[in-house]
Amino acid sequence: MPVLSKDVPQEELSSPTADRWSDVVWETAPAKVNLFLNVESRRADGYHELETLMVSLGLRDTLRIQSLPGEELEFVCHDARGVAGLATGARPLDLPPGPGNLVWKAAQLLRDQTGVQRGARLELWKRIPVAAGLAGGSTDAAAALRGLNRAWNLGLSLAELRELGARLGSDIPFFLAGRPAAICRGRGELITPLDLPLGLALVLVKPTEGLSTPQVFRHCRPEGRRPGVAQLVADLRRGCLAAAASQLHNTLQPAAESVSVDVVRLREAFGKLSAAGHLMSGSGSCYFGLCRNLGEARRLAGRLVARRLGSVFVTSVASGVRAA
Ligand code: ATP
């Protein structure tokens, strides 16, 4: 069982997605990692053309949405990181408190686009490390779109929510695809959902310092089209982890290493461990090892905690998370 913290209500832990009262909706917001991320080119509109394989994780935030009779929006964020991992040197949560938060922006966008004149109290339990390449803000925004669609009885389809989500951020549509794995193209918003065997075990380390996505993209060298993702998917489907691990790829990693010594240290540390493969996620700074099973992930987590490289998490693709 995950370690429980006093600030997480029992309702959330026992039944996170159930409607507890008619006007309350709960949503879970999973983190993601990129098992493959190729930056193909820089586009004229300033975005980059990508091909990426994203998988969602058991590590997740939780959002409680209470519809309010007036038009007011309220947002509260709780630090629930003690539930998700062992923090070494974690700082206080540094997130926009109100209209700057992506949860708030999602609510505002939904109201602007549908004309609904409703308010809501949005309460977020934040476990996903910030500025980590785990798309914490994007998944929270997707959860807000899904949950408010239900709470305000808007009746929008997932495709309509994806279209709205893409206006707020390129990673958001993935979390509105309804599947834990997908190949994403374009600037990340063109989604091909995939059936992959679940339960891939991962150990993650988030150094104290996060990385800014725009900064890392500025340092990256696009690689053109590159084979690999189809082979990676085939290897994962066959359950051939060693072959899959040899296809892990992230164009952004050399760029991140050029601006963050933490990422270099993590690559070196993972290189001395027995994980099947290892890679930086997204634009960093979080780094993960792909493990044969949760037992191996836990063993490696113990060694990584001892190295004091950051907060360590053991999780798997779209299942539970364990404190390391
Ligand atoms: P991505 O991989 O999508 O680029 P990331 O995982 O690297 O994202 P996030 O944790 O999503 O980074 O944070 C990116 C920025 O978004 C931060 O500057 C943060 O202040 C802002 N932000 C706004 N709302 C949120 C939220 N609910 N959770 C996390 N970050 C948020």
Question: What are the main properties of this structure?
Answer:
Ribosomal Protein S5, domain 2, Alpha-Beta Plaits, 2 domains, five-stranded antiparallel β-sheet, disordered N terminus, binds adenosine-5'-triphosphate, 324 residues, seven-stranded mixed β-sheet, 32% helix
What does this structure look like?
The chain has two domains: 10-193, Ribosomal Protein S5, domain 2 (2-Layer Sandwich), CATH 3.30.230; 201-323, Alpha-Beta Plaits (2-Layer Sandwich), CATH 3.30.70.890. Helix content is 32%, strand content 28%. It is built from eleven helices and twelve strands. It has helices at residues 10-14, 81-84, 102-114, 136-151, 158-168, 213-218, 229-238, 241-245, 252-259, 261-271, 294-307; strands at residues 24-42, 48-68, 73-79, 119-126, 181-186, 190-193, 201-206, 249-250, 277-280, 287-291, 311-316, 321-323. Strand 11 (311-316) and strand 12 form a beta hairpin. Bound molecules: adenosine-5'-triphosphate. The site of adenosine-5'-triphosphate has 19 residues, from helix 3 and helix 4.
Outline the secondary-structure elements.
Layout: H1 10-14, E1 24-42, E2 48-68, E3 73-79, H2 81-84, H3 102-114, E4 119-126, H4 136-151, H5 158-168, E5 181-186, E6 190-193, E7 201-206, H6 213-218, H7 229-238, H8 241-245, E8 249-250, H9 252-259, H10 261-271, E9 277-280, E10 287-291, H11 294-307, E11 311-316, E12 321-323
Parallel strand pairs: 1-8, 3-4
Antiparallel strand pairs: 1-2, 2-4, 2-5, 5-6, 7-10, 7-11, 9-10, 11-12
Helix pairs in contact: 3-4, 4-5, 9-10
Residues 95-96, 101-103, 130-138, 140, 171, 213, 282-283 line the site of adenosine-5'-triphosphate.
